[in-house]
Amino acid sequence: MNILILSSEAVPFAKTGGLADVSTSLCVELNRLGHDARLLIPEYCPAIDRSLYTLDRVMSGLKVVLGGHEHICNIEKCRIPGTSQKSHSFVYFVQYGGFFERPGMYSESGIDYWDNPQRFAYLCKTALEWCLAEEWIPDVIHCNDWQTALLPVYLKTHVSYRDNPLLDNVKVLMSIHNLSYQGRFDSWYNPEIEVGPEVFHLHGLEFYGDLNLLKGGIMYADRVSTVSPTYAMEIQTSEFGCGLDGVLQARSEDLSGILNGIDESVWKPSVDKAIAKKYSLHGMNGKKACKKALQEELGLKVDENIPMIGLISRLTYQKGFDLFLSQLDALLSRDVQVVVLGTGDNNLVHWLDDVARRYPSNVAVALRFDEGLSHRILAGSDLFLMPSRFEPCGLTQMYAMKYGTVPVVRATGGLKDSVIDATPTSLEDGTATGFCFERFDGWDMIQALDRALDMYRNDAAQWKKLMKNGMSADFSWSSSAKSYVELYQSMM
Ligand code: ADP
Q1: Where are the domains positioned within the chain?
Q2: Is 374 a pocket residue for ligand 1 (Cβ < 6 Å)?
Q3: What CATH number has the domain spanning 2-261+477-491?
Q4: Peptide bond between residue 12 and the one before it cis (omega within 30 degrees of 0)
Q5: Cα distances (Å, whole numbers) of residue 146 to 185, 205, 374
Q6: Atom in ligand 1 nearest the alpha carbon of residue 397
Q7: pTM for the full predicted model
């Protein structure tokens, strides 16, 4: 199959969240399964450091007209780092300074670029124009999030694509990685991104008078998917549907959930160069050294017996940091250490700063994006907390399990699908991997943490089993990629 994955980010080139990990891993795995999968993203500059990668020009002077303006771009490609010379795993880049040479990917100093609709509409149109110019016609175009949601709209409704026999059999899958980001804009943008009255209506991109790009993608794609089975159910309810629950219910037959995998060759403590000492399922001593090194690095009291709770996340309403902070005094009274790595909401940043000042030997806060530190926290912590309000899939709980760090999570979305709560039954049959709480509630969260701390302190054998269950769980991309292949095939 020819598969084009269209995304606004991809590791290691440009990343703000889990989408970047998913795009690259899925592309690599699809190629490994024998498909011709190509990943196309914008060539952000300076975010993508050309001194680190070899980018080869594969097409020059590709003309793309958008909203009456002509833009000329180049297409470049780069082998996905870590893949063999024999594999065909390449990321392709749209190089166009007018839209993508900026200090940020989506925003600057916290303010979104005013022309984001045009920038990503351009990405969608360029994807189609490139396929036609290259004479490489995908069987499936896999779009990801609102930035790519105009592609099915253009493909199905623009005369130049709709009536082009070359594109007759191209199917589109629209994947939702987080429904709370919908690409909602004033309808002033309509002519700029070639959205006309034939698609700007109740059953198209119109949403309470505004333009809603993701809604367009959901309405015009052949199939819709999201990143966990539970989230696929949740988004059809008013609690999680972010206003699009009715639209998603209407497409219920075409909606499925496939849990993301993780790159198990990267998130692997036995080969991880970022951590103080490597370890594995068969030799866990290194984990103690990692904890000590983390305590030293962050200026915490060095004591291997104090349970260390890690959090790594965007600091947003979604991730439940307000719930966590509201319970922090209660949590610290249980003699634990807490380490937080995150960036985001200013109120949460100030709150966290204040807490770290008040409890210098028990709380460490790093308010930056730091890939290396994220690995060291995963390796050095005993527990990993994710009290999310909602979580489409979540990757860090899976990373944590691979590092023998036991997750404590709210049972929602992908957290529910990937963490098996330690109950008498799951402990008995050896499937338990962590601790879950149902309601978004401080008391419930503390109870789950108490269950975890009790086991950590009083039942070392059971705790070790829990760590080992997580470390040996299969979160590889191979099973997720196979599910995507089945989905693509069912569309054709
Ligand atoms: P989301 O996509 O909602 O942000 P995920 O759990 O799916 O959440 O993915 C988040 C990714 O970003 C993970 O790879 C996580 O390790 C990483 N990450 C988040 N914040 C930071 C940070 N401050 N420093 C380093 N990595 C981070």
Answers
A1: 2-261+477-491, 286-472
A2: yes
A3: 3.40.50.2000
A4: yes
A5: 11, 11, 27
A6: 6
A7: 0.94
Which of 24, 374, 381 best tests ligand 1's pocket when mutated (most atoms within 8 Å of CB)?
374
pLDDT digits (tens, 9 = 90+) for 360-398: 989 999 999 999 999 999 999 999 999 999 999 999 999
Q: Residue 420: phi, psi to the nearest 5?
A: -100, 115
User: Nearest 5 degrees, angle CA 247-CA 249-CA 253?
Assistant: 115
Q: Following DSSP, what letter does each residue of 155-197 receive, concatenated? A: HHH-HHHHT-GGGTT-EEEEEES-TT---EE-GGGGGGGT--T
What pLDDT sits at residue 25?
93
313 lines ligand 1 (CB under 6 A): yes
CA–CA separation, 202 and 207 (whole Å): 7
pLDDT digits (tens, 9 = 90+) for 170-212: 999 999 999 999 999 999 999 999 999 999 999 999 999 999 9
- C-beta of 226 in contact with ligand 1 (< 6 A): no
Q: Provide the pLDDT for residue 394.
A: 95
- 473: burial class by Cβ within 10 Å (0-12, 13-18, 19+)? middle
For the Cβ of 459 lying below 6 angstroms from any atom of ligand 1, the answer is: no
CA 254 to chain centre: 22
Distance 187 CA to ligand 1 centre (A): 32
Q: Report the separation in Å between the CA atom of 89 and the middle of ligand 1, taken as the mean of its atom positions.
A: 24
CA contacts within 13 A on the Cβ side of 477: 21
- For the Cβ of 292 lying below 6 angstroms from any atom of ligand 1, the answer is no
Is 400 a pocket residue for ligand 1 (Cβ < 6 Å)?
A: no
What CATH number does the domain located at 286-472 have? 3.40.50.2000
Q: Per residue in 402-424, pLDDT tens?
A: 999 999 999 999 999 999 999 99
Q: Is 18 in the pocket of ligand 1 (CB under 6 A)?
A: yes
Beta strands in 33-96 (DSSP E): 36-42, 56-66, 69-79, 90-95
Q: Do domains 2-261+477-491 and 286-472 have the same CATH topology?
A: yes
CA-nearest residue, atom 20 of ligand 1: 313
